[in-house]
Amino acid sequence: MGLINSDFNTLPELFSSIFTHYKGQSSTFPLARKINGAYEPISYDLLQEDVRHCAAYLKEHGIAAKDRVAILSENRPGWYMADMAILMLGAVTVPLYPSLPPNQIEYILRNCGAKGIIVSNMLQLGKIISIWQKLPDLSLVIVMNRLEETIDEVVDLNQVKDEGKTILEKKPWLLDGIDVEPDDIATLIYTSGTTGLPKGVMLTHRNLCENVKSCSTVIRLDETDRSLSFLPLSHAYERTGGYYLLFSCGAAIYLAESVETVSLNIAEARPTIIFTVPRLFDRIKANTLKQIGNESAIKQKIFFWALHTGEEFHRQMNAKGKAALAVSMQHSLADKLVYAKIRKKFGGKLRYFVSGGAALPQKVGEFFQALSINILEGYGLTETSPVTNVNRPEKIKLGTVGPAVNNVQIRIADDGEILMKGPNIMKGYWQDEDATREVIKDGWFYSGDIGEIDRDGYLKITDRKKHIIVTSGGKNIAPQPIENLISESPYVDQVIVIGEKRPFLIALIVPDFSKLMEYAKENSISATTNKALIENKNIQQIYEKLMRTISRQLATHEKVRKFLLVDEAFSIENGDMTPTMKLKRKTITSRYAAEIDKVYQALNMVYNTE
Fold first, then answer.
1. Domains along the sequence of the chain with CATH
2. When you count CB atoms within 10 A of the terminal residue's CB, does the N or C end of the chain come out lower?
């Protein structure tokens, strides 16, 4: 069915059309959250009522069109309600990751001149209270959780809704005649940035609405669909795909309790579609193989037979459009014995995973495809609202991010950079004309990514332009394909390849310590800490062997000459990752600068004749 109503050019028009369509209906609902161990739906009528009451409160307390109001919260019903209320007033939503520390929150709130902020709980409220005196524009602070004690100038959401209801009863006209234009800014999303200060991406109502319309023609959704939401709504990908798109098609959004409970919540919510990032697939694959490793020899044999059957079936389907009769028959049997049981773990109704936010390693995609689980890999940036490309359900090409969606033009510049044009391209960076001019030229957005388009129009991303390593010998090397090869090892959790202005490449590797501990146990290696493990010669030999194997697949200048094992994972908490789970290469290389220098000094002594 797709969109319930395609005649919308602003987000308030989208919300209004959906609320009108489902008025008085109880069989369908937009949101469900976990209460007392079971999923409970929130009706369209109740959500609309709460949105109106919240909007009335905000307006009565000084929030007007174009004012910036931030949301600092995990995914929960209050997030959707707050966003709709802010947008309904023609104000601008500024989403903040709940993992951000106070100093970064302060920078963003000061930079955008936020007038109000809605936070989830006392932890987030504490961050705001600690910086409030440095924020002269901030006059309104609302907390979603119930306030147990009175805090000056802070109200909770229940008070907001109650007061908003009273305000509307006295002034029923208060929300009438609010004029929101398609080219007005709907949201300011601050890109976390792997280097430098975050920039506020200005996305208009037209940007987001056009992107929703484009996506709805690729992934057909209707009110029989349901998703499980666990990616942060602060991220443009979850916001457009996992919220606005689903809402516009009448699909239900089930809220995961946390990232840790995703596998449990999938079985409970029984979603038909899940928007996620590649890291989840790595975990699912590792857990699946671990579970199989604990089964009997015959069950293991059946699983790997089914996996190889699936690989062969899809190899033939991709090459010829059909599979040989014998392979098809084996594939049907494998489906009954293995694939169906694995699908049941995902609730049994899953049609697609949609993967974005980072590159999906091709081998990982092939593993899931072999088990009859469809992953539609897509691509885009915050600046593009965000979706520009996505694989089509009828033709999935692993290793690519699919063709462009409707309304988006893609071309490749002479240096390989991917350029885009369309109604989804941002208005610019907030109060930063220089940065805007750097990326938008002659109507084209310069993505900073390197790629190529195949004869079917499918885009393949080969690397980030700014990640391209230029060695001291002048060789240009894309690290991502090399990192993907290294990541395929079960003993590798995270990796970055470095070599800028150096004669050779080396790799910083965070091992999969659970796997290493198993190996150590099996091989009578006595090491009780991560540090002791990575210093063990037998353990290091695993990675030496891995580097030799990978070297055979690479050109001479691409070979990784040495590796450095790291005993602490790269994470958001230690500052090595952005809130969108991207590695901060500059930060990581600075942190391990001394160790890296030692490796290069030793290497130079060996290779100084090259």
1. 10-21+42-180 (3.40.50.980), 468-607 (3.30.300.30)
2. C
